[in-house]
Amino acid sequence: MCGFVGFTNKINDASIVLGKMMDRIKHRGPDSDGKYVDEQVAMGFRRLSIIDLSDKGSQPIFNEDKSVVITFNGEIYNYQELREELLEKGHSFYTHTDTEVLVHGYEEWGVDMLNRLRGMFGFVIFDKNKDQIFGARDFFGIKPVYYAKMGETLMWGSEIKSFLDHPDFRKELNEAALENYLTFQYSPTSETFFKNVYKLPAAHYFIYKDGKMEVKRYWEVKFTPDSKPDLDEWVNRITETFKNSVEAHKIADVEVGSFLSSGVDSSYVAAVADVDKTFTVGFGEDEKYNEIGYAKEFSKYIHKENNSKVITPEEYWGNFAKIQYHMDEPLADPAAVALFFVCQLASQKVKVVLSGEGADEIFGGYNIYHNPADMAAYNKIPKPVRRGIGALAQHLPHKHGINFLIRGSQDLQERFIGNAFIFTEKERKELLSIKTDAPAPQAITKPFYDKCSNNDEVTQMQYLDLHLWMTGDILLKADKMSMAHSLELRVPFLDKEVMALAEQIPAKHRVTKENTKYAMRIAALKACPPQTANKKKLGFPVPIRVWLKEDKYYNIVREKFTSANAAKFFRTDKLVQLLDDHRAGHYDYSRKIWTVFTFLVWYDVYFGSETVGIK
Asked: Active-site residues: which are they?
């Protein structure tokens, strides 16, 4: 695990500039650093030593004649098998790292190497002989790759902040990204909040040659349910495949721990992984917001040591600007802060942790996946009638029953854009004081719906979440919060072999009237007690809605909402009205408030007066 940065070399003092860019991401790799600079490219690397701890494992790493050079972030779990195959084909190795396997794999198979890999990865290769730059991101988007074209210079890296020190970088806000974000609570497209800076999408690679960038997909999720096996057979397959994935994800030359909440995902990981240490955080004494008691009980059940921390409100709010700095782009998921603290806790004991991200998307775990079944009876009413009822309901206070009538008037593609739907297109335009060219939310989701239109509605929802919510929210915070503490976070549910199995499981074994992740929960019963395996999905509970009604935190948010920076983008009277209505108990507007507040804190960090990490 590490961080990398690079650029096409069009400047004087390239090595000095590269060093400054590398310093920005020292948190990703505090153990060592390395550079490669010639007249064409400059490539920098910060190392967190996990496999082959010797100095030989330091990057950049080369092929035999040094015509191919790589910087790589991630882990390749089948590197040993690939190494043996490449040795048989005549390649010579000078390290025992997975990084060198990528170098020779590229030489031997080119782009086709990518589908041979099992792991999480972001890497960039400079091929001197072909005079091209080749970069790739893993199947699910676990590890990030960003790139920017500024004039004649191409920059790339693990984090956007590393670009700030390059003399050609122009820091400008992408206002269209702000409007999209207000609906999704994260940046949902390949564009970022910085103009001309892009995310390489998951399961894509790029080739940069002769000043032109070509980006292509190399792998696809394809849900093709197989109705022949019965439920018991699927449960057995999940058990064996997941066990194999966990074993692969434990490969390391350092100690591995595991995160643990009260949910089935992290509990299943911890039980199967059989690591020595688990890590948990919570808030206060209210069990609604504190899972520490459960985690300690479960850790005793599996005979492991649990390490825990109670996060105070002062810590949560006091570190928020620093967290947005590490995030690179605003992310309004309150659980990101909790993840920051559990990563901080774990980093004091281990270098690697396993976590349960991805189980909900691939096995069908979110409660909202009950929605198609919940709507089935109401959908028997003729659509024109439902449309009329929904139009009338739009003008009523949005209580639970009213929201049901509004959703019931809409097709799935209209009402479901992923796990978060914060501001509607109409609401965000009324809130903003600027005009942008941001597309409608449904225009962003349509290409994904088009690809899975032949699947049932539950599967369509999963497919959308896999490509938007999971990459844009879940995995963004997993990478940035763990790397902020020089901690490698691994996700055994997001494994190519596990996905290949999950693609075949019929929807009836994923989401039932009783529960979500149905088949997976039965598999988990082999390692976890029933109260754990059958526990309803909670997410990561954070008491934001409570804090926003307290004077101290109400005033902090109100100050942001009435600031000069807020007035650049928003109608501040609307913002204050949201805050006051929430405090008065008219409706729970906490997610809307937090989405705007998060952006304003992030904006102050990168464009305003905050001094966290920015000079």
From this structure: 2
